Amino acid sequence: MKRKNNILISPVVGFLAVLCLLFMAGPIDGKVPRKKKVRRKAHVVKVVPQQKQLPQEDVIDAFGDSIASDGFVADSLISDTLANDTLPWPESLRARIDTILKKSETIKTSQFALMVYDLTSDSLLYAVNEKQTLRPASTMKLLTAITAIDKLGGSYQFKTYLKHTGAVVDSTHTLNGNVYVVGGMDPRFNRDDLIAFVESLKKLGVDTIAGNLCADRSFKDKDLLGEGWCWDDDNPVLSPLVYSRKDQLMEKLLSELNEQGVVLKGEIVDEIAPSASYIICSRAHSIDQILSRMMKESDNLYAESMFYHLASLRGKPARAAGAKIQEQNLMRRMGLDPSHYRLADGSGLSLYNYITAELEVAFLRYAYENSTIYNHLSPTLPLAGYDGTLAKRMKGTKAAGNVRAKTGTLTCVSSLAGYAKASNGHILAFCILNQGVLRGANAKTFQDRVCVAMCQ
Questions:
Q1: Residue 18 scores a pLDDT above 60
Q2: How far apart are CA 39 and CA 44, in angstroms?
Q3: Dihedral over alpha carbons 357, 362, 364, 367 (to 10 degrees)
Q4: How many CB atoms lie within 10 A of CB 319?
Q5: Are 226 and 318 in contact (CB under 8 A)?
């Protein structure tokens, strides 16, 4: 009997043991997947980096081109992730740029060209696709500025003249003739200049103009837009008589004459001033004043004005073709073949401009080797982290205050070219052209990282 009892008790104990184990393992009724929270928590963790309250610099991936960072690159991120700085210079620089190119998603999905030249040691440091023709956007202004300073000179002035024909009858204070405004395509012509014109006319004793108020537009051709400009862009008007960025100088002058009590009996007409006309007043602005806004703020009107003044050296009316010839002649002096490039305008607005990183660096080298050009050009270039179109870029990095460069932006096009000061004191000339980039911020981030690498 005892043996039988043992046999009966054993299954009961075993059954209880199995139930205990199942209880410890948890339910098996199929409801577990709905009750477990682990997967949801993992999903929440993934979206934390997108929180709006975090400062932008706190969420930048050192190489994540998908993050729009307005070009900011944290210096600590670069130093932590790039090549070993124990390498001798310039090997360390090449290694840093190699790493940037290897990690960048932007250049994997778009076209780009890069060239870095050591001006101090006169040697090429880095080049990728440097002979590939791409659109330069506003870095085209570098070619315009360098050629203009070279050809026009550092003391050149942009002038507008007020002239007259006929004589002044003292008894009636009447000018028996016409008044001419001879346009010089000065984009800085402003209200002060307008008032000076009226005051100079009154000093002649004139309060009545018997003739016409004539607009002399003979400085340039009649084209008001550049070759290859998009109709829906905010294009500047290419007029020799521009005022407040519009072709309205004559109307504004007439309004000021009326306010000052000077009566015009004639009307506003287009007419070239005779060679025998007399100069009443002239107003001028220096090439440095034009260059400053042209480069710091990337002003297209100022660039086109510079372009046509360069063209005017080949005769008037000035034509775009004349400016292109000047640039092409300079290319030949550099040992480059102009037929390898396509030039259309002076500002970079045109979709017909096609140049290379090699060409832009060649122009930068030429400027650096000619102190007159460099001394006029360098102060006008935006300074990284401080002013112009680079005021918000590269802040807090080694590039801030050490990169002076011209930016360029068109739809799907971004570029940067200029000078950088390396940590060893060497001055570098560089050009970065990005094309086919759907998000401009990604290209700017890429460019900024290269700049930081050059300055480390």
A1: no
A2: 9
A3: -160
A4: 17
A5: no
Residue 90, preceding peptide bond in cis (omega within 30° of 0): yes
Interatomic CA distance for residues 97 and 402, integer angstroms: 17
Q: Determine what percent of the chain falls in helix, strand and coil, rounding each to the nearest 5.
A: 40, 20, 40
Q: What are phi and psi of 284, to 5 degrees?
A: -145, 155
The percent of residues in the chain predicted with pLDDT above 70, rounded, is 81
Q: What is the pLDDT of residues 150-201, one digit of tens each?
A: 999 999 999 999 999 999 999 999 999 999 999 999 999 999 999 999 999 9
User: CA 223, 229, 231 angle in degrees (round to 5)?
Assistant: 95
Cα–Cα dist 26/378, whole Å:
74
Q: And the tokens for 280?
A: 């009443």
* pLDDT at site 65: 32
Q: How far apart are CA 397 and CA 74, in angstroms?
A: 6
Q: Packing angle between helix 320-333 and helix 357-369, nearest 10 degrees?
A: 80
Cα 334 from chain centre:
25
Q: How far apart are CA 111 and CA 121, in angstroms?
A: 29
> Among 387, 363, 395, which Cα is nearest to 377's?
363
CA nearest to 446, candidates 59, 114, 220: 114
pLDDT in tens, 293-343: 999 999 999 999 999 999 999 999 999 999 999 999 999 999 999 999 999
Token representation of residue 257: 């004459």
According to the model, what pLDDT value does residue 284 have?
98
- Residue 367's pLDDT is what? 98
CA 444, 453, 98: angle at the middle one, nearest 5?
90
pTM passes above 0.85: no
Q: Kindly state the average pLDDT of the residues 14-32.
A: 46
What DSSP letter does each residue of 173-198 carry, written as one string?
TEEES-EEEE----TT--HHHHHHHH
Is residue 96 within 8 Å of 102, Cβ to Cβ? no
Inter-residue contact 376 to 370 (CB < 8 Å): no
